[in-house]
């Protein structure tokens, strides 16, 4: 859930292009071609390096295939370009957020904020219960802020570092971070998608949140149990000796609990509904000041000088904000951990989002998104079939439109009347949109959410996919509840 991070002016008024001349085969053809090309590109040729550029170009090739289909169905080049422009416009906030998160990570490193989090976290978090703690911590922060993006960009980064130091798989830690972050985001009244879903379905916000608990609480409970089982059986080299790592951190940074003031202020600003860009900018600038005060030796090292003055301080902080920076310690493991790419490090993710938006824009312009959703609606012959079609539509939109908002808006508009006709309360639709559209967006590498979280946490979607239990169990839970007709709310008693 992007929450306040990506916010079109009026997401419920997003225009959905229809093209009655387009067949379902033509609508699905670009998707099939894209999936085949991505499969070959990732699993046969490039592997983990696919996100360095080749996947981005594959998305553009997919857009070209969709454009050819559009030309054959009398869709003009201008129409397609206009829809692409609208898509790109809707992601402007996301791209700026990504750049600011890169800047934040750089200054939080050289100021000692992230090392301080790791330093104290290593002493507090028991390896056996670390993953469960990750889920709970991120859930609390995300409920308070209404943003999974803010959660992963702040406490999530620190938890990844702590997990790596404890010898726990990056994929496991990232999965735990995202499971907690998306649970909190989904259940928070401050979240944009939590407001958007009931707006699309015609439900009351707090009725929607209450109704979501039927599927969300069991899914969250299962997630905690799974991470507890993993924690009890995980091989973390027994009870790891962290003394050398604590000494290494203490030797490289001036560790102080006062440094927690910056992240606490950022979270406080978000809770007070300060625009995330403003909160992250404030966090970046304050961390830059903290770096000059608390870690002058690191600022001078990055600036390449032996004296601290205005110019060297400016250069050191600016370097950390914009380009690669690294702080060496006596621990080789920590040397890999204490590095940041700054704003430059986010350019690959931004490139991916732009290319994904091109593909989604062309698919919308030729009427493919609308056609796929209508085909799914036509398959719904029962109440369960209607729920299943909604889930499938949300998943399909997350893959094809590459944007979480469209995965809520398009199915929300298309299925609203079908739910009304079956005497189903709007909460059924809004909950299903969230269970299948909001939380699964992070499981798609080229979706804005998948690209963002992967870029911020430094863990590929393939590595955390399996462990993001909450995210992929959620759509199955909503189908289970529908299949057994558990508390299916109706507009009026039958």
State the gist of this model.
71% of the residues lie in helices and 1% in strands. With 494 residues, the protein is an all-alpha fold. The chain has a two-stranded antiparallel ribbon with strand order 1-2.
Radius of gyration: 23 Å
Contiguous low-pLDDT stretches (5 residues minimum) are 1-13
Give the SSE string.
Answer: HHHHHHHHHHHHHHHEHEHHHHHHHH
What is the number of E strands?
2
How are the strands of the biggest sheet laid out side by side? 1-2
Percent helix range: over 70%
Sheet with the most strands? 2 strands, antiparallel
Straight-line distance between termini: 35 Å
**Helix/strand/pairing category:** mainly alpha
Question: What this model shows, in words?
Answer:
Helix 2 runs parallel beside helix 17 (347-365). The protein starts with 23 loop residues before the first helix and ends in an 11-residue tail after the last helix. It has helices at 24-46, 54-72, 77-90, 92-110, 113-124, 130-145, 148-165, 170-187, 192-201, 205-233, 243-252, 261-271, 276-294, 296-303, 310-322, 332-337, 347-365, 368-378, 383-400, 404-421, 426-438, 448-457, 461-464, 469-483, and strands at 325-326, 339-340. Residues 1-13 have low confidence and may be disordered. The protein has 24 helices and 2 strands. With 494 residues, it is an all-alpha fold. It has a domain at 94-345. The chain is globular and about 70 Å long. Strands 1-2 form a two-stranded antiparallel sheet. The longest helix has 29 residues, at 205-233.
């Amino acid at each position: 859930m992007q929450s306040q991070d990506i916010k079109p002016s009026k997401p419920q008024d997003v225009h959905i292009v229809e093209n009655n001349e387009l067949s379902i085969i033509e609508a699905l053809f670009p998707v099939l071609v894209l999936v085949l090309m991505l499969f070959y590109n990732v699993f046969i040729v490039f592997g983990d390096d696919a996100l360095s550029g080749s996947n981005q170009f594959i998305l553009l090739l997919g857009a070209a295939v969709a454009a050819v289909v559009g030309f054959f169905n009398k869709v003009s080049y201008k129409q397609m370009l206009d829809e692409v422009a609208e898509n790109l416009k809707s992601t402007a906030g996301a791209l700026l957020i990504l750049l600011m998160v890169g800047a934040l990570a750089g200054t939080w490193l050289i100021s000692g904020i992230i090392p301080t989090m790791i330093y104290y976290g290593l002493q507090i978090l028991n390896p056996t219960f670390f993953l469960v703690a990750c889920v709970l911590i991120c859930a609390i922060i995300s409920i308070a802020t209404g943003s999974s993006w803010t959660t992963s960009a702040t406490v999530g980064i620190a938890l990844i570092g702590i997990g790596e130091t404890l010898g726990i798989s990056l994929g496991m830690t990232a999965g735990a971070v995202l499971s907690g972050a998306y649970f909190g985001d989904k259940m928070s009244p401050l979240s944009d998608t939590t407001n958007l879903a009931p707006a699309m379905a015609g439900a009351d916000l707090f009725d929607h949140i209450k109704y979501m608990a039927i599927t969300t609480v069991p899914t969250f409970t299962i997630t905690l149990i799974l991470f507890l089982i993993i924690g009890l059986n995980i091989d973390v080299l027994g009870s790891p000796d962290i003394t050398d790592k604590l000494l290494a951190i203490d030797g490289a940074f001036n560790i102080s609990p006062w440094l927690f003031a910056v992240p606490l202020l950022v979270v406080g600003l978000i809770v007070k509904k300060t625009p995330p860009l403003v909160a992250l900018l404030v966090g970046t600038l304050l961390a830059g000041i903290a770096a000059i005060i608390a870690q002058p030796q690191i600022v001078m090292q990055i600036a390449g000088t032996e004296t601290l003055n205005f110019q060297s301080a400016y250069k050191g902080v600016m370097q950390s904000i914009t380009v690669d920076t690294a702080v060496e310690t006596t621990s080789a493991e920590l040397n890999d951990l204490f590095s940041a790419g700054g704003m430059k490090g986010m350019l690959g993710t931004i490139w991916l989002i732009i290319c994904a938006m091109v593909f989604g824009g062309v698919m919308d312009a030729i009427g493919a998104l609308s056609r796929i959703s209508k085909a799914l609606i036509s398959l719904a012959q029962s109440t369960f079939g209607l729920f299943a079609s909604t889930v499938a539509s949300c998943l399909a939109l997350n893959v094809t439109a590459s944007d979480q908002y469209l995965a809520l808006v398009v199915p929300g508009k298309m299925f609203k009347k079908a739910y009304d006709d079956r005497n189903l309360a709007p909460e059924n639709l809004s909950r299903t949109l969230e269970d299948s559209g909001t939380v699964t967006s992070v499981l798609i590498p080229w979706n804005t959410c998948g690209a963002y979280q992967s870029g911020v946490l430094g863990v590929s979607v393939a590595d955390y996919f399996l462990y993001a239990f909450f995210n992929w169990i959620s759509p199955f839970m909503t189908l289970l509840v529908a299949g057994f007709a558990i508390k299916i709310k109706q507009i009026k008693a039958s």
